[in-house]
Task: structure prediction
Amino acid sequence: MTYNKLKRIDLIFHEDCDCRQVLEKTFSKSNDEIINDILESGLKGRGGAGFPTGLKWKFTAEQPSDERFVICNADEGEPGTFKDREILFKVPGKVFSGMAVCGKVIGAKQGYIYLRGEYRFLLPELQKALDKFHDEIKDLLDFKISIQMGSGAYICGEESALFESMEGKRGEPRNKPPYPTVAGFKDKPTVINNVETLVYSFMICKHGPTKFKELGTSDSRGSKVFSISGDTPIAGIYELELGMSLDHFVEEFGDGDTKAVQVGGAAGFCVPRKKFKETIIGFEGVPTGGSMKVFNSSRSMYNVLHNYLEFFEEESCGQCTPCRVGCQQLIKGIEAVKKGEQKAAYLDQLMKLSETMKLASKCGLGQSVANSFSSIVDNFREEMIY
Amino acid sequence: MPEVQELVKSLADKYGRKRENLLHILQGIVEQERYLSDVALTEVARELDLSAAQVYGTATFYTFLDTEPRGKYVIRVCRTISCDMKGKNRIIQAIEDALKIRLGETTQNKKFTLLETNCMGWCHEGPAMLINDQAYTNLTEEKVIEIINDYVKNK
Result:
C-alpha cells in the first residue's frame, strides 16, 4: 500500500474569504456544472460514513418534489470529536455559503443547522453571523437558514434520528430505505451534510476541484480536519492531508510512549502499536470522522473499553433489542471476566454478541459498537482478563 | 400554577403549535424553570393538542430536558474517556466537597445541581464541564473551586 507523509494543510481555516464573491462566481455556473465539480473533486462526507457528497446532492436534486431541504449536521457527539465547533466558531460564513450552494443546486429554499445542545454557547455569535449572511446574499439567492438546537442526545447525529428530533419527536432512527435524498426532513428530499463537508464543498467552489483532488489518495481525496486528544503533548485541531500512515501520525502527535490510537471515536477502531505502520488513515484503511485519541502505555485498555461501553449503553435509543440489550450485556460481560466470575473464553462469546449487534442493529450506533469492542478485545485481550 | 401556564402559552405563541415546535417549547421551559414539571408537560400537551404521553415520551428522550427539579445552575462534568483520563473524578470530588452534595444531587438552596454528562467536545482541553450553557475547560481542583465560589457569591 502507498501512503502519504503527514502534511499539514491550511484550507478550511485559511483567512476569511469573501464568501459573496465566491458565491457569485459559483452561481454563474449551471447546477449540473457545480455538481460535476463536487463529483470531480472526489469529496466524501466528513462525518465518518464517507458517502460521495456530489452524488448526495445529485440524487436529491433529481428527486421530484415541491420542497427540498439542506441540513447541516452540527450534532457533533462522537467522543473525541470537536472540530465542527471550531469550524462554526471560526469560519461560520463558509458553512452558510456551503449550505447556500447546496440549496441552489438542489432547489431548496430553506436550510437548517442542527446544533448540539452542548454548543449552545455558540448560538448568539452564530445567529449574528447568520443574520449578516442573510443580508449579504438576499439579492443573490432566495435561501434562508435557521438554527435548531439539540438537547443532549448522541443518537441525533444519526441523520434519520436528527430528522425525527427536528420534527419534535424522540430521536429514534428510522428504517432505511427510504434514504434522506428521497424522504428526509418532513419526508421531503433532503441533503444532510456534516459541517466540515459543507465547508469543503464551498472550498471546492472557490478553488476548483483540481486543487482538492491533488491532495490525498485515490480513495480518500483531499484533506480533513482532525480532532486530536489523549496522551499527546499537542492536543488540538489540525487539518491534515488524508492517506497518511498511523506511524507518521504517532511520530508527530504521540508522546513517545504511544501504545494504541483509537481512530474514529468510540464508534471507531483501536489500532495497537504493532499495526501503526500498515494502517492508513482514510477510506481505504481506517476511516474517521476526525476523532484521534492517543493512549500511552500507562493506560488500561479495559478502562477505555468500559468507558466506551458505558457511553453506548447510555446513548443507545433503546428502540431495537440488539443494541439496547447488547450494550448492557457487553458491559456486564467484561466486568464479569475482569472479576474472574467468567472464564477468559467468555470474551469470545461477547465478540459473537458484538457481531450480532453489527448485523442486527437498526442504525449505525448499534452496528458500530463491535468496531471498538472487537478491536480492543482482540488486541488487548490480556488487559481484559488480568 | 398560572405562571407555567403563561410561560407555555407565550412559548407556543412564539414558536407555533405544531408537533415540530415541541422541542423548541420544551427547551424554552427548561431555560426558564431548569426542568419540566408534570404541570408544565400536561400544559404543553394541552396547548399543542398532543397526548401527555407523547410530550413526556419526547421530553424524557433528551438528557438536557430534565423532568426532575434542578438547581438554578446545572453543573455537568464530562465523564468520557479523555476527561476521565485527565482526572474528572478529582474535579467531581472537589465540587462535591465545595457544595456539600453528591453527584446527582441538588443543593438545599436549589442553586446547584451536580451531574455527569457524555462527551461535550472539549477532549483536547479536559477536564471540562458545563454550568448551564457556559463551558469551562482545562479544569484543576483549584480552578473549579474558584469558579464555583464565584457562582456562590456573585450569581
